[in-house]
Specification:
- The chain is built from nine helices and 30 strands.
- By secondary structure, it is an alpha+beta fold.
- A hairpin with a 2-residue loop joins strand 27 and strand 28.
- Helix 8 packs across helix 9.
- It is globular.
Length: about 625
């Protein structure tokens, strides 16, 4: 019997070349010892319409940049959308519950309700069978609190409708028993959902966001993206008789949405990973779906990064890459002397001394002052800094598999859509969260995603970039250009972040005639000030350039805002939508840049008083 058990639990370990094959809805779990990441299961839908489900187990070792695969005769069946949680007990264990499986041609569909334990030290699986356990489901989440595994939500699809769940279960790791926590009817609790974030804290568990569908009789189901945040407050019940009462005292508390401009936009497909060292949840990417028509679903994909500080009442932070100071970049910028003629405006009680000039006099006279500004020419587009960390950002996606190991975020795969086709990605990235300097691509994607309207887009780019190249392209594509395009296919935003070159004449005269005093004061407050008035809205703050901010930096800081603006005003999607968003940002920047300069000049000649920042 011992020999039979050993044969059934014999583990085969194999060193593999790289990350798992293309797949989605697998689990990506940080090892309790902080040395490895475990990837289990997943699904892949091939171009021929076949559904492939996996049961393999992979381990990634960051120190060696090494992937290993473990195969055992006794293991959970192939599945996706399951839940895995790690505990350091007994040298480290992974607990897996539920998930879903489909036949090759999706003729049959199955939800699991089995419960498994993976021993990290021996790499072997053991099934845990109990009489009482949660119902079969997918898309649920689990978290560890003390010696309890907490399970919430998910969905069950019998084939004709999708039932979303909001039941709460706990598994006692000391007694190896499941127990359902039933809330009273008058107690508040989260609505049914799947695909949410579930983060443990010393006092309980944070739940954020998720996805569900609304079913209205006579209408097709409508997907609903959720952005509410709940806190499951947990404590041990010291007076509980374990045979009669629950050993836990739990209560759901809904957290108020933080009034901050740094909260992510409404989205789904973006489960947070816990950065334990900073008590923060890390969210990457996601998708925003909008049902504008009965037959179509329009989607915007994201590749931004957010952090949720789980302490106190919770707070969102936008995690942007740090741009290094580059003296070399600044030295390359060319300064041009630009004379600007300013027509003074006479006002009572002012310190301005002038005759006001004569109407229609375009020449410099008693009523005009000419001063010279040194204007730095923008960097040509061809000289975009190749070391710009923004260019290392992974392409937009949803359902990316993320895990934080110590202070490093790891991102694997995900799904991107172009038109009606889904592309399952297989790239692998790392980002040091304590440095936020750049994304490191550990494995580039082998998936080829065609450009949306590739021929038209390329011609539009050539027109919009103001390139001085005389190469028309023709029917033959330059090999270097082809390689550059392939290298950039994971981030289409390089054209957006490049500063647009605006030719500056050696001698430029700008005349400002008959400006009213009130208008000048308004312009001074608006353009010099990024006012400190607390009544300014977050939208006003994010959409106003800061003093000395270039167009590229301004757009990088406010990209999400302009994308959402373009999303509501245009039918374009994908790269065209980002281009529309950049056009809005450029228009906003250009309308403010000239008044900025004029306000400074007019303040210098003493026509009105304004506050400089």
């Amino acid at each position: 019997m011992r020999r039979e058990w050993e044969e059934a639990h014999e583990v085969t370990e194999e060193l593999v070349e790289g990350p798992p094959s293309r797949r989605a809805n697998a689990t990506f779990t940080a090892s309790p010892d902080g040395n490895h990441i475990w990837a289990i299961g997943g699904e892949f839908f091939s171009d021929d319409g076949k559904a492939h489900f996996f049961s393999d187990v992979f381990r990634y070792s960051p120190e060696k940049d090494e992937w290993r695969k473990f195969v055992s005769p006794t293991c959970p069946g192939p599945r996706s959308a399951h839940a895995v949680v790690a505990t350091p007990a007994g040298g480290g264990k992974l607990f897996l519950f539920g998930g879903e499986f489909s036949s090759l041609y999706q003729n049959s569909f199955h939800h699991y309700r089995d419960f498994w334990c993976f021993d990290i030290t021996t790499q072997s699986w053991d099934r845990i069978d109990t009489k009482v356990r949660p119902a079969a489901r997918s898309g649920h989440r689990m978290a560890i609190w003390k010696h309890y595994i907490v399970l919430f939500g998910g969905f069950y699809d019998p084939g004709y409708t999708t039932n979303y769940l909001n039941d709460l279960w706990v598994f006692d790791l000391q007694e190896y028993k499941w127990r359902q926590i039933v809330m009273k009817d008058n107690e508040r609790k989260p609505s049914p959902r799947s695909g949410f974030s579930f983060l443990p804290t010393p006092e309980g568990i944070i739940l954020h966001g998720g996805y569900c569908k609304e079913y209205i009789k006579g209408k097709r189901p409508v997907g609903v993206m959720l952005d509410d945040t709940w806190f499951l407050k947990m404590s041990l019940n010291p007076e509980a008789d374990r045979k009669a009462d629950s050993p836990l005292m739990v209560k759901w508390e809904r957290r108020k949405r933080p009034s901050t401009a740094f909260a992510p936009s409404l989205r789904s497909g973006c489960t947070m990973a816990l950065w334990a060292a900073k008590s923060m949840g890390i969210m990457f990417g996601g998708v925003t779906d909008e049902d504008k028509h009965e037959e179509t679903l329009e989607s915007v994909f994201h590749n931004d990064l957010f952090g949720y500080q789980i302490g106190g009442n919770g707070r969102w932070v936008s995690m942007l890459l740090k741009r290094p100071k580059r003296e070399k970049w600044r030295k390359k910028r060319v300064a041009t002397n630009v004379p600007i003629v300013v027509q003074k405006v006479e006002r009572e009680g002012s310190d301005c001394e002038g005759d006001g000039g004569e109407d229609g006099d375009d020449d410099e006279g008693d009523g005009a002052s000419q001063i010279t500004l040194r204007v730095e020419e923008p960097h040509p587009k061809s000289e975009v800094d190749p070391e710009d960390p923004v260019l290392t950002t992974p392409m937009p996606r949803y359902n990316a598999m993320v895990a934080v190991l110590r202070n490093t975020l790891y991102i694997y795969g995900g799904i991107f859509e172009r038109g009606t086709k889904e592309y399952t990605l297989d790239d692998f990235y790392a980002l040091q969260l304590d440095k936020m300097d750049r994304y490191i691509c550990l494995k580039r994607s082998d998936v080829v995603i065609p450009e949306e309207g590739e021929e038209e887009s390329s011609s539009d780019e050539d027109d919009g970039d103001n390139d001085d190249d005389e190469d028309d392209g023709g029917d033959n594509e330059d090999e270097d250009d082809k390689e550059d395009r392939e290298d950039r296919e994971d981030w289409d935003e390089d054209t957006v972040f490049s500063p647009q070159q605006v030719p500056v004449e050696d001698e430029v005269e700008v005349e400002v005639e008959e400006l009213e005093e009130d208008d000048l004061r308004v312009k001074a407050t608006q353009f010099l000030g990024v006012s400190k008035d607390t009544s300014r809205s977050p939208e006003d703050v994010i959409s106003t350039p800061l003093p000395g901010e270039t167009l590229a930096v301004f757009y990088a800081r406010s990209r999400d805002h302009w994308t959402q603006k373009a999303f509501g005003a245009s039918d374009n999607r994908g790269k065209l939508l980002r281009r529309d968003g950049f056009a809005l940002a450029e228009e906003r920047y250009s309308t403010l840049s000239v008044p900025w300069s004029l306000a400074y000049v007019m303040a210098d000649v003493g026509c009105f008083h304004c506050h400089r920042i």
